Amino acid sequence: MEDATMTTPAQTAVAATPEDAQLARLGRRRQRKSFLASIVGQLLEWYEWSAYAVFAPFIALALFNPDDAVSGLLATFGVFAIGFLFRPLGGIVFGRIAGRRGRRFVLVTTMLMMASASVAIGLLPTFESIGLAASLLLLLARIIQGFAHGGESATANSYIAEIAPARKRGLWGSAVFMTIFGGAFLAFVLGGVITGALSEPQVQAWGWRIPFLLGAVLAVVALWLRIGMVESQVFQEGTDDEDPAAADPAAAASAAEAVPADQQADRVAEVGSAAPAAEAVTRQADRVAVRDGLGEDSFSADTLKPLSPALSIVLIFFLVSGVAASNYTWTSYVSTYAQTQEGMSPSGAYWALVAALVVGLASLPFWGAVSDRWGRKPVLYVFAVGTIVTVFPLMGFIDDRPWTLFASTSIALFLLSAGAALLASVMAETFPTSSRTAKIGFAYSLATAVFGGTTPYVNELAVSQGVPWASNLFIAFAAALALWAAWRLPERKGIDLTIVR
């Protein structure tokens, strides 16, 4: 069996001389820079997405009929769900674009769309000013966000998994969900600061707009970082077959050797040069940084056997469904539940969630690293079984004391992280490069629309009808689907993504 630490032919080709070692270092630096650009942009987009849920009670009174608070809150969460319904369409459209024009182009485009819609929400006139038009404009902004977010999530999951070292794909992939928790963390921190510094009438009048407008400032930094991203080498190897120097490591290495040794350092520095030899050097450096995956000899025939397109999509749909239902309950809805049903103060609820999200953030890289060592399937079982067993007692434990919200949510997020940390790596190891982003876009976005975007609405509806157990059953059912998917998915930890079929 081939060991994950064995040196590949490509690595040997570029590690023979000090100049070639410099190429490898260049590839790793570019790899880390692109990784940072991707997660910073993801963090901003999830911050903007989470801000809507955090300030939902205030948005309901500002942009819907304030005379009916319950209907307004339900309508607010309904608009939240509609944004999710457009995510599958965005995932399909941008997934196809990412398969043709590259991951980088989509990540820049979707970030601009998300930021623009966020600014629009922050500037919307109130219901008292323009009536129903305020609600309709909010709906339009959320549709744009949902469409863009569908493409963003699929592409980011593919991109990070593709640029990650194969032996650390679980750890690197966990960063995708770290941006989700991190975005919620920032939104809740800002929620706590705003509700603590301003009176409730001030927050209702204008304070709720601050997080959406702040997103515009952060978008400038994120855009600057993303413009400098490099394209995924896994993607380029699948689209550059007509270029021998790009598609074949040996050809690229030969082109690199054609550059005199005393000029290679200068070539390395000229990353943006259009010279063919310099381009070959740079492309080869990027390739070496990621081509350390396990080959076909390391897996059984059954493990490598391609899943049917329909089955692979269904399995990922079920897996993401379990994660999404739990995630949006414990990061988007539970704060509203604590305030409206248990009488917890808004500030207390926000800070309890902030502290719990720290636990969730710390848990994600832990579970990602565990999966790189012991495999994806055991960690997925921890998430699914743990969620089914604990959802009822954890929700029942919450009362008007903030520490109860912190305790319940911390345990829930620790278990959720076991599934969430692995989504990027598992999805990338399930779908082939040629259709990876499009299939992830469809399965991931559809699952979050059905079991994610609707979860806060289902939760609020069940509680308002006096049957809170129904919302817990909804979460347990979604986790059961994820458990079945984890059982059926093959174990492909550390596989070279270019051999996935």
UniProtKB/TrEMBL annotation:
Q: Which SUPFAM superfamilies match?
A: MFS general substrate transporter
InterPro entries for the chain? H+-coupled_symporters, MFS_dom, MFS_sugar_transport-like, MFS_trans_sf, Sugar_transporter_CS
Which residues are in the Major facilitator superfamily (MFS) profile domain?
Answer: 34-494
- One matching Pfam family is Sugar_tr
Q: Which residues span the membrane?
A: 35-64, 70-93, 105-124, 130-150, 171-194, 206-225, 310-328, 348-367, 379-398, 404-428, 440-457, 469-487
Q: Which Gene3D superfamilies match?
A: MFS general substrate transporter like domains
Keyword annotations from UniProtKB, A to Z = Cell membrane, Membrane, Symport, Transmembrane, Transmembrane helix, Transport
Q: Where in the cell is it found?
A: Cell membrane
What GO CC annotations are associated with the protein? plasma membrane
Name the membrane topology term.
Multi-pass membrane protein
Q: What is this protein called?
A: L-Proline/Glycine betaine transporter ProP
Q: Record the organism.
A: Brevibacterium yomogidense
Recite the lineage of the species.
Bacteria, Bacillati, Actinomycetota, Actinomycetes, Micrococcales
